[in-house]
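Weekly puzzle thread! Below is a chain. First person to post its structure in token form gets bragging rights.
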Amino acid sequence: MSDFEPRIIAFCCQYCAYSAADMAGSMRLQYPPNVEVVLIPCTGRFDMLFALKAFEGGADGVYVAGCLEGTCHFLDGNFRAKQRVNYLRKELATLGVEEDRLRMYNLSASQGPRFVEFANEFTDLIREMGPSPFKVKSQAA
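Winning reply:
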């Protein structure tokens, strides 16, 4: 299990999280290459099906990253995303899947180093958990 490298999908809002990821790249800050960044217009547009499809497609962990609370460019998009993420975390738990496989982070566009922290923290967490139960079930079928 020590050579397990998780596949992480990060749904990032274009205004803050994606810009922070871009800034991290401009600063030449390293984050795990297994974090796949997906640009979304706003975390308010995040749909729970995105996460479920990501898990079904082989992701071991999914996180949603958006603007700092209270600074969403679309007013309350990140609050709606937080509600959706929290709801889906509970639903994952009822399916026997660790709810920590899905998280939400908030940061500003100027926080490239913070984006790297989140990516590293989440990757380490998922690495400790091991492969996604969705992945194990789909490989067994």
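Puzzle host: Confirmed. Bonus trivia for everyone else. The chain has a mean pLDDT of 91.
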